[in-house]
Amino acid sequence: MHEKGTHFIKNYRLDRMASYSNYPESLLAAMQVKSLIGRRGPIPDQDINVSAFRLEPGTTYEPHAHPHPEVYIFLAGTAECEWGDETFTAEPGTVTHCPPNMPHALRVTSSDPLQAIIVGWAPDGDRSVWDGISTLLET
Smallest Cα–Cα separation from 130: which of 39, 37, 16? Predict the structure, then answer.
């Protein structure tokens, strides 16, 4: 069981992704996410979403996009990434920015799971960005 205060949470467990958007079952089975701060998080906030994210070795997270901007802070594992027209290797300590609706994808290349903190927000307080969902793009 996690421990939580008004302004902190610790000892949380990641959850397997449930059915979501047009994501295939194989991706959902390899992905674990836990909203920590945000509309569905144990620490509520309407303008920001902070999630812990884990992706199993060898998994490809195909190009996808969503209306809200995001920052990934990579903590463990490595991945080959495509963010817009840039390709790079993410490793612990890599921080990325993804503007709204920009396609981005990654493939876990390490033998350990990829772990990251993902931060999304409602730019200029425009909470309508939360109404749109992430969808895999046709490749």
Answer: 39
Q: How far apart are CA 2 and CA 4, in angstroms?
A: 6
Residue with tokens 């772990």, as numbered in its chain: 115
Neighbour tally for 19: CB within 10 Å: 7
Amino acid at 2: H
Model confidence pTM above 0.90: yes
pLDDT along the chain (139 residues), means of 10: 84 80 90 93 95 97 95 98 97 98 98 98 94 82
Q: For the chain, give every domain's residue range.
A: 3-136
Residue 72 class from Cβ within 10 Å (0-12 exposed, 13-18 middle, 19+ buried)? buried
Q: Which two tokens stand for residue 138?
A: 């046709």
| CATH tag for 3-136 (out of 2.170.120.40, 1.10.3300.10, 2.60.120.10, 1.10.8.60) | 2.60.120.10
